[in-house]
Specification:
This protein is mainly beta. The chain has helices at residues 3-23, 293-307, and strands at residues 31-36, 41-46, 51-57, 63-69, 72-80, 86-93, 98-107, 111-117, 120-125, 129-138, 147-158, 166-170, 173-178, 181-186, 191-197, 204-208, 211-216, 219-224, 229-232, 242-248, 251-256, 261-265, 271-273, 282-288. Strand 9 and strand 10 form a beta hairpin.
Length: 313
């Protein structure tokens, strides 16, 4: 191989990687998705508050929990208030496409929350249990759009819980809010920590890595997942109107329903209201993390490398 050939064969992948970072589309950034209970839609925004799509999904009725995995957005929805509540789980892409609006139907066990870990979907029940489902993606064809199915793999994945009103996944762990405590399990069902004491009833919580953010009774606190207090009563705010929490790194996103706004805070309690217009009684929030450099190269660089075959091999 000549010196010129060696240079070209080594330079093109590096050049392509650099072009991938430069040409990566604008949507490859951390995003937040907010459910507006007042207008029954889901908006998509950057973590700095810029609007991407104010109505990404315009007809999700009575959503009580949201979870996200990769490019998939899962919704727990109440479908009936007569003769007891009925619930279902729907699946959409983060670009707004319907994947399966009836992924799981006929839920009648007072479902409270959902969480997702890859292809494993967890559903919490007010009656004291968590069920596990396996979600299988079905690729689209020339005549049909991509869809999915869900199979119940363990109806009693976790049992004997004390009113599990919210669940969340972080890494390989599943966190379960049980009134005064947040318990930690592996996503395989093994108990890790029987109770992170939050010193009071928990209204909402979010977890990211080794940190837990918790709103409770008008206060707001941050703990480590081992139970140590990091910060208590952050700022000089009234936290009675917090309706949802999400975390990305050390940033904490808080839905303030009464004032129709989303605030962001660091662990030191420095609050900023994001400049999001048009929120209508927001009640739920999830965050899609920003991919790293390797992820950007994988997303944008693959196409460049595919278009540029090595003619000098």
């Amino acid at each position: 191989m000549s010196l010129s050939t060696q240079f070209k064969s080594r330079a093109y992948p590096r050049l392509a990687a650099g072009m991938a970072l430069f040409l990566a589309p604008a949507w490859i950034h951390a995003q937040i998705f907010v459910y507006n209970a007042g207008s029954e839609n889901i908006g998509e925004y950057t973590t700095s508050g810029a609007t991407i799509k104010s109505s990404l999904l315009s007809s999700p009725v009575d959503v009580t929990s949201m979870a996200i995995s990769g490019s998939d957005l899962f919704l727990l929805q109440r479908t009936s208030l007569y003769n007891g509540s009925l619930f279902q789980v729907s699946e959409y892409s983060t670009s707004g496409a319907v994947i399966n609006s009836s992924l799981i139907t006929g839920l009648t066990n007072n479902e409270t929350s959902i969480a997702v870990d890859g292809s494993n979907l967890f559903v919490a029940h007010w009656t004291g249990s968590v069920s596990e489902y396996a979600v299988t993606a079905i690729p689209g064809t020339r005549t049909s759009a991509p869809t999915s199915t869900a199979t119940l793999t363990n109806a009693d994945f976790l049992t004997d819980l004390s009113i599990p009103t919210q669940i969340a996944v972080s890494g390989s762990d599943l966190f379960v809010e049980e009134y005064y405590y947040i318990s930690e399990y592996t996503t395989g069902g093994t108990l890790v920590n029987p109770g992170i004491n939050t010193n009071g009833p928990t209204d909402n919580f979010a977890v990211n890595g080794s940190y837990l953010s918790v709103s409770q009774g008008g206060s707001f606190n941050v703990y480590t997942t081992s139970g140590d207090t990091v910060a208590s009563y952050l700022g000089e705010e009234n936290f009675n109107d917090i309706n949802g929490i999400a975390m990305q790194g050390s940033n904490i996103f808080l839905i303030r329903q009464a004032s129709n706004e989303v605030d962001v805070s660091d662990l030191a309690g420095n609050f900023t209201a994001l400049p999001i217009a048009g929120l209508n009684s927001p009640s739920l929030i999830v965050v899609v993390p920003e991919p790293g450099v390797i992820g950007l190269i994988s997303i944008a660089g693959f196409a460049i490398l595919r278009r540029r075959p090595n003619r000098y091999a």
